[in-house]
Amino acid sequence: MNKKTAFSLLGGIIISAAALYLSFRNIPFADLFTYLALIDYGWVLLSGVLTLPCFVLRAFRWRIILENKKKFGFWQVFHPLMIGFMLNSILPGRIGEAARPYILSRKEGFPFTTGLATIAIERLMDMGFLILLSAAVLSTLNIAPDYTIAFGDYQLSPENLSSIGKGLLRLCVIVMGGILLILIPMTRALIQRLILFSPEIIPFAPKAFKRHLKEKFMQTLVNIIDLFAAGFSLLKNPGKIFQCAILTLLIWAGTALTYYIMAKGCPGVEISYFQSVALMVIICLFIALPSAPGYWGLWEAGGVFGLSLFGIPTETAAGYTLVNHFIQLLPVIVIGIISAMITGVGIFQVAQLHPENKKDSIEKDPL
Q1: What's the CA gap between 235 and 258, in Å, rounded?
Q2: Sign of the alpha-carbon torsion through 94, 95, 98, 99
Q3: Residue among 99, 117, 107 nearest 367 (CA)
Q4: How many CB atoms lie within 10 A of CB 367?
Q5: Cα separation, 340 vs 236, whole angstroms
Q6: Separation between Cα atoms, residue 354 and residue 251, nearest integer Å
Q7: Rg (CA), the chain
Q8: Is 225 exposed, middle or buried (0-12, 13-18, 19+ CB in 10 A)?
Q9: In this structure, how many other beta carbons lie within 10 angstroms of the beta carbon of residue 101?
Q10: What are the Cα distances from residue 250, in Å, to 68, 69, 82, 255?
């Protein structure tokens, strides 16, 4: 493990530990264990089984994005996808994002950078959908006007929930506008020239420093912009964009369904499907922060926090969230390991992918 990976892991563990403390500091553990014994684990198992179709849909979406460059069979994309998500669950730094195109490049001869671009497309689709969903959920939650929730040093109220929703909607508009500017060749070239020129306007900086900044940082940023633009150029067919949008909707609708099914087996967690969607969104907002592998800590903080909005007691919310987190990760890890065995991929070899390796790949494997 190199220094960057070690620092990433340490930082994630610290944040996760703090989140776990905030989530469980006022929960009687005897009551928590008693509650865990009351859960109907048949519903839990069903929830876990229903996570699989969501990953099948993810594989179909990735296959559609890839096929403008090369057509793949379902299993050719499903196995790398599951290996990538498995690695995200057990290793720091979300290394699974780079593992997927790495496996395609080694097994299928597909250019690494092009594969990385397709991952960027997926993430932007998910991010855009979740931002819109977050704005809708956070602005429509039915909470009493005078109701406030304490979480650590923060106070959550309907007023600031509405502000968060509006802010996320503005962010979505800005992100989409930025993507549009990058996709237009003329504006993309202008942005890249401005980026490369920006070190020159730093006052009193030595020429050697400006040159180093331009070569090591600004050029990398320019390459990343080319990467995103090339990635989106893979989706030239409006019909395929529509297919990916529908699959993205089904992926997140299915994920929310697993939360809803899970609640059926948890005494005291009586939430509607819409509330399950809201809970999923809140957890996603929490786990977007740096965390330990598998998002332990922040997932629990988001779950306890989200369920408290619906009047669920903290020990009940903690029990539901712990079991839900476990059953969401278990199928991913098991299937990911099986996929690695089927394809003959060495997990420890893939785990050696580091940020600097990804940077080298961008520079050496142009689209």
Answers
A1: 30
A2: negative
A3: 117
A4: 17
A5: 32
A6: 29
A7: 22
A8: middle
A9: 26
A10: 22, 25, 18, 8
Range of the structural domain that residue 129 is part of: 3-364
Q: What residue ranges in the chain does DSSP mark as E strands?
A: 149-151, 154-156
Worst-scoring range by mean pLDDT, 11-25, 158-172, 195-209? 11-25
8 Å CB contact between 102 and 365: no
The count of domains in the chain is: 1
Q: Per the confidence metrics, is the pTM higher than 0.85? A: no
Q: Which amino acid is at 210?
A: K
Give percent of the chain with pLDDT exceeding 70.
72
Handedness of CA 112, 113, 117, 120 (dihedral sign): positive
Q: How far apart are CA 27 and CA 1, in angstroms?
A: 36
Q: pLDDT digit string (tens) for 275-317?
A: 999 899 888 877 776 656 667 777 887 888 888 888 888 888 8
| Residues facing 272 on adjacent strands | none
Burial of 204 (0-12, 13-18, 19+ CB in 10 A): exposed
What is 9-66 written as a DSSP string? HHHHHHHHHHHHHHHHTTS-HHHHHHHHHHS-HHHHHHHHHTHHHHHHHHHHHHHHHH
- d(CA 236, CA 247) in angstroms, rounded, equals 17
| Tokens linked to 266 | 């948890």
And the tokens for 129?
């959908």
Per-residue pLDDT tens digits for 17-44: 554 555 455 455 565 677 778 899 999 9
Backbone angles phi, psi at 103, to 5 degrees: -65, -40
Q: Rounded to the nearest 5°, which phi and psi values hold at 151?
A: -140, 105
Q: Tell me the sheet residues that pair with 329.
A: none
